[in-house]
Structure formats: C-alpha cells, structure tokens
Amino acid sequence: MPETAVSRLVKDSRDGARFMVRVTPRASRTALTGVMGAGDEAAVKVALQAPPVEGKANAALVEFLAELLDVPRTTVEIAGGAQSRNKLIAVRGRPAAEIAAKLEEAMGRVKA
C-alpha cells in the first residue's frame, strides 16, 4: 500500500492501532472532514453533531468511529485527551494498515 497522510498517522501499538483525531463538536453533521497537521502532529479531523457536555461528544465519537471502521464499539477507546479536542484513539485487535485503509476509503467518499 502506498504511504498516504492517513497511513502515516495510524500507528501499530501493542494492542492494535492508534491515531490522533481533532474533534469539532456541535457541527451540522457527523463526518470525517480531512487530515490536519503533519508528522507526529497529524490528526484526522472529525465533525460531531453532539455537544461536548457530559461525555456526549466522546460517546458519539466512539460510536461513529466504530461504525466507520466496521468494528465493535468495545474495541474503540479514547486512550488520551478525553477532555480535549485532540484525542488519541485506540482500536484494539486491529492492525494499523487495516484501520488506515478504512479511513482512506471513508475520506475518498467524502471527497467524491
């Protein structure tokens, strides 16, 4: 697989794959909106309809990513940044290449 912005930001970890996201809560719709930054600072941009109140945006993010990546919700967790717009997402039991491919596919649908 050729290296792309998404494939560079999804990393293998001991338990699965990890990647950064930048969340924009209270958006008009929930969707991937692109990639921001470069290198270790790169993140997938995600717009969420949910407000950042009482964990609603975090729950919506986990549900959205699980559906998008076609994995059970229990395998997706916010491993860092629960109270921040910048979050570290862990997807247990899945290799980085698989997660990157699914994110790339979803981003292709956004651009089309």
TrEMBL record:
- Kindly list the GO CC terms recorded for this protein: cytoplasm
The cross-references to InterPro entries, in alphabetical order and at most eight, read:
DUF167, YggU-like_sf
User: Pfam families from the xrefs?
Assistant: DUF167 (PF02594)
Span of the signal peptide: none
Organism superkingdom: Bacteria
Query: What does the sequence similarity comment in the record state about its family?
Result: Belongs to the UPF0235 family.
> NCBIfam families this protein is in?
DUF167 family protein
Xref: HAMAP family: UPF0235
Q: What is this protein called?
A: UPF0235 protein D0Y96_08495
Give the organism the record lists. Paracidobacterium acidisoli
For this protein's source organism, the top of the classification is: Bacteria, Pseudomonadati, Acidobacteriota, Terriglobia, Terriglobales
